[in-house]
Amino acid sequence: MKLALAPMQDVTDLAFMRTLHRIGSLPDVFITAYFRSTSTTCAMAEHNLRCIDENETGVPIWAQLAGSDAPALLRDAAALLERPGVAGINLNAGCPSPLVNRHGAGAGLLRDLPRFADILLQLRACLPAGQFSVKCRLGWEDAAADFPRILDCLAAASPDETGIHARTRKQLYGGTPDFSYVKCAVQHLACPVLANGDITTPQQAMECLESTGAAGLMIGRGAVRDPYIFRQLRGGAAPTPEEMQQYFAILIEETGRILLHKRTEKGHCNRMKKYLAFCYPDFPAEQEHALRRCTSMADMQRILTQSPVTCTENNYAGNAAARK
Ligand SMILES: Cc1cc2nc3c(=O)[nH]c(=O)nc-3n(C[C@H](O)[C@H](O)[C@H](O)COP(=O)(O)O)c2cc1C
Q1: Which of 81, 161, 175, 283 has the most Cβ atoms closer than 10 angstroms to its Cβ?
Q2: Pocket test for ligand 1, best of 34, 137, 221, 229 (most atoms within 8 A of CB)
Q3: pLDDT (tens digit, 9 = 90+) per residue, 10-67?
């Protein structure tokens, strides 16, 4: 089973990757949050580049591009591949942000399938074997109508791997992922398929693998909430409450480390809240409330050690604000 950390802008960042390394719960591959590629420029966001350049975890990292202009994507893919440490290029065909979709990028690619097909073929022609993957949704709004055509585009281009977030763009992050489409992808595509969407427990992960036949899983929010999920999926133990506290302590340290000279008390606190937003369902209401309101790191550390946290069932209600 192949395990990937799903990219999450400003969440699955260098600090989080280093934290996974320090707690000894690692996926097989990291994927950066997207670099926005346009005909005029590629936003080489410093925090994304640092994930690549300062990745000392030993886990290969793929650079993700979001764009809809084939020459620009080829230019930026080539530039990123020149950086030592980039294991391959991942094309984003899933981002639901209206800002990105307006320009036909992210999930916007799924609204113009001839363009999507062309971009896939051009990237395939230019990227070395083993260095081209795609992350996509089930379609723009109608999976039954869109997904078979998306699969034809993917099959024609033969990417080396495909991650599928089992929702349409219309669903954003709501509703239930429909993994029956992942099963179709497994049957239709020659490459390994990774299933993605709402996987938060090892049991769910195993059920998903069994029902879809997928080669692996891509886990995002579930890994922020329980970073030991990768260890568990390799047969390791569930985290103890002490290990969860250790996780938060290391994350605080690593977040401080990436903020460097830009670190302020408030900035550090706000940065921590970006991760904690996905952990709130596991805190008692009072503790959650105190964490949301806290403005000092001393307070945050005190609140986090007040009562031990254990990971509970899948429930992202109330996390809408933390999603992009
Ligand atoms: C805050 C946030 C940021 C995200 N950023 C990206 C991104 O940069 N690229 C991408 O392909 N997906 C991005 N996603 C989507 C995730 O990779 C993933 O597909 C989605 O959250 C479903 O998987 P999960 O339930 O395991 O989190 C983001 C999701 C969230 C919540």
Answers
A1: 161
A2: 221
A3: 999 999 999 999 999 999 999 999 999 999 987 888 999 999 999 999 999 999 999 9
